[in-house]
Amino acid sequence: MSQAQYIKKNDAKIAVKEQLPTESSQLELKDMRVKFPMREGRFVHAVNGVDLVLAKGESLGVVGESGCGKSVTFSSVMRLIKSPPAIIEGEILFEGRDILKMSKREIQKIRGKDITMIFQEPMTSLNPVMRIGKQITETILLHENISEREAAIRARELFKMVDMPDAENRLWCYPHQLSGGLRQRVMIAMALACTPQILLADEPTTALDVTIQAQILELLSRLQEKTKMSIVMITHDLGIIAEITTRVAVFYAGRIVEQAPTAELFLQPAHPYTIGLLGCIPTIKTTARRLYLIEGNIPDPASLPGGCPFHPRCRFAKDICKQEEPTKREFAPQHFVACHFAEDVS
Ligand code: SF4
Q: Is 331 in the pocket of ligand 1 (CB under 6 A)?
């Protein structure tokens, strides 16, 4: 396992993964926008100009409240958002090739092989009337030119790799016969079936209790080190971000408002939204009767406020914030922020 480094925040000692030197970029989003048409020519603007680079072997955290565009962004990377009716603009480059310009056949080759995704609730991704072993071998056979027997052997190996207890018998189970934690292990095994280069994990532990959550995170971390794949961990939980990622992108209203190495973001957040998210984490020394909360709600993507989209909730907002949207700029080396007053609030 890679070394964890410890930082102190609000009197709490937080372990964050050491940032490893990364190779060249593997996935690149350039000015990506996703909008959904509504009646009367109006649009829901779910993603509004996202620029992001994922390096080979990197572990990137994507954090923000529900509805801020995280899942839509990465479902678009997998081309899981139906377009049309959705309008997806910009570029999504995988190893230099634009996923948005690929044919159905080309994207099917990549999806499930080079880029895979696991979701919060495995039951919605697994076929309830098919044995688990069969589902895994079908995934392997779809992408690999091997025999059924070889695929079955590979399925057994994968179950061992994800520490499935009683692996041999579990292959004959139906999804409903397994607990939530075991079903998530099945999903991870399926995602790793063809040794992907990128794993997109969308809230993979939210539906699990904390002990199982810790086991799944430890498993993902270990598998990443073994396979050298890149992971994008999409979550609203900063504890998970600290545990498994080396760099973080904070999403708000379909934009990245802050991006930094994980340790730096925890130590010196520069955007008021990130400061608010970190302030919501209780520590062992928290004595206040009520936890801190960010007032208000995320804006309706069909009618975003002008200027900085965070201004209605921001305690540092000034007049200019209502008129001018801040652009992303380098606040410190590798630390980017979109706020007019980052230097004053951090
Ligand atoms: Fe707050 Fe203004 Fe910064 Fe937006 S630009 S986060 S409103 S201080």
A: no
Tens digits of residue pLDDT in 153-172: 988 888 888 888 888 888 89
Confidence (pLDDT) at 19: 52
Residue 9 has a pLDDT of 54
User: What are the C-alpha distances in Å from 167 to residues 65, 141, 219?
Assistant: 36, 20, 16
Answer whether 252 contacts ligand 1 (Cβ < 6 A): no
Ligand 1 pocket residue status of 204, Cβ below 6 Å: no
Confidence (pLDDT) at 18: 53
pLDDT digits 0-9 by tens, 258-317: 999 999 999 999 999 999 888 877 666 666 666 677 888 888 888 888 899 999 999 999
Structure tokens at 242: 């600290």
Q: What is the pLDDT of residue 21?
A: 45
Positions of the chain with pLDDT under 50: 1-2, 20-22
Q: Within 10 A of 228 (CB to CB), how many other CB atoms are there?
A: 11
pLDDT for the residue 8: 56
Integer angstrom CA distances of residue 330 from 137, 260, 335: 47, 10, 6
Q: Which atom of ligand 1 is nearest to the CA of 321?
A: 2
Answer whether 338 contacts ligand 1 (Cβ < 6 A).
Answer: no
pTM here is 0.84
* R_g of the chain, CA atoms, integer Å: 21
Q: What is the DSSP string of 146-197?
A: --HHHHHHHHHHHHHHTT-TTHHHHTT--GGGS-HHHHHHHHHHHHTTT--S
Q: Is 73 left (phi over 0), alpha (psi -120 to 50) or beta?
A: alpha
- Shortest-distance atom of ligand 1 to CA 326: 5
The response to whether residue 317 sits with its C-beta less than 6 Å from ligand 1 reads yes
Ligand 1 pocket test target in 252, 256, 258, 310 with most atoms within 8 Å of CB: 310
CA 201 to ligand 1 center in whole angstroms = 30
Q: Are 230 and 56 in contact (CB under 8 A)?
A: yes
Strand, coil or helix: what is 272?
helix
Distance 341 CA to ligand 1 centre (A): 6
